[in-house]
Design brief:
By secondary structure, the protein is of the alpha/beta class. The protein has 9 helices and 13 strands. A 7-stranded mixed beta sheet has the order 8-9-7-10-13-12-11.
Length: about 300
């Protein structure tokens, strides 16, 4: 039986991971009391006696936690931004070319960001196939539920006396310096980060990421894109979906409390819309982390996931 420790188990991501692992019979969760949860020496002991440690912490705290790990047998899955573009870490999106095999033997795994997950799922396979050039200048639109902002934002949205502005979609990261941008470019294989427009809206969880393309600017057609997606994404977690619409609409919360993702290519022969839908707390965070743990353990990668 493998021992698992969640450092930062009180946060939104940590809590969801704990929920996914609660009924598992093949693992033992190492837990700290509330008094010991932030105690460095207690955390050090837990981090060095477990088989796999999930870090559900802010970047600086995640870097500190890694420094506490002295046992070379411990595998770390970091859900923060801190290590996602570090070449010494394996990027935790197993559906991308070659990553599943690397993840199976890795001791340092960087869990993808939520917006980044949707973007790299759409763009990386098309860059690899030569349909999108590395020099492409892309624009990405992403809408997410408010749980992506953590406990503080959840409390704001669920407050009875909240500001009226929270009842409408709100665009943010207006300076084009969102922390996922570096990851989005490097993992996708493009030279320039996209113009990125993330929007948070008045629903708890779910995410929809879209990238528009003019057919004249790519090497291929809508059918070529669909062929690539159908070959790359056959499940169990990420699947190609040819006709995902609900009466001509795409609901961003369609995958709320689900750990899967669908990838689609819509539009026509002139203007193409690439779209991924998933849960910002599922394949965009906790679900992806559990999937990566399953691959490390050599078991069914969908074990314990809601699909």
């Amino acid at each position: 039986m493998k021992k698992i420790f969640i450092d930062g188990s009180a946060g939104t991501t940590g809590l969801r991971i704990r929920e996914r692992l609660a009924e598992r019979q093949d693992i033992e969760l190492i837990t700290l009391t509330e008094e010991k949860r932030k105690d460095t020496e207690a955390r050090r002991e837990a981090l060095n006696t477990c088989d796999i440690a999930f870090l559900c912490l802010p970047d600086a705290a995640a870097i500190e936690a890694v420094s506490l790990v002295e046992n070379p047998s411990v595998a770390v899955i970091d859900t923060s931004t801190a290590h996602r573009t570090n070449p010494d870490w394996t990027y935790g999106f197993p559906e991308l070319q070659g990553l599943r095999e690397r993840l199976a033997v890795s001791k340092r795994i960087a869990n993808p960001g939520c917006h980044a997950s949707g973007f790299v799922a759409l763009i990386n396979p098309l860059v690899n196939a030569g349909i999108i050039d590395k020099s492409a200048k892309l624009v990405c639109f992403s809408i997410t539920g408010y749980s992506g902002g953590g406990k503080k934002m959840i409390a704001e949205y669920e407050s009875e006396d909240r500001p009226v502005g929270l009842s409408s979609p709100r665009q943010y990261a207006l300076s084009q310096e969102h922390k996922h941008l570096k990851e989005m470019a490097i993992i996708s294989g493009i030279d320039t980060p996209p113009v990125f427009s993330p929007i948070v809206a008045d629903f708890y969880s779910g995410m929809q990421v879209s990238v528009g393309l003019h057919a004249s600017e790519i090497s291929g057609s809508l059918e070529d894109i669909r062929r690539v997606y159908s070959e790359v994404y056959s499940g169990p977690v990420v699947k190609y979906c040819e006709a995902p619409t609900e009466d001509g609409f795409l609901a961003s919360n369609a995958f709320s409390f689900n750990d899967g993702m669908t990838v689609s290519a819509l539009g026509n022969q002139d203007r193409i819309m690439l779209t991924s839908r998933f849960d910002n707390l599922g394949k965009g965070a906790s679900g992806a982390a559990v999937q990566n743990m399953n691959i490390l353990l050599g078991c069914d990668e969908a074990l314990g996931l809601v699909l």
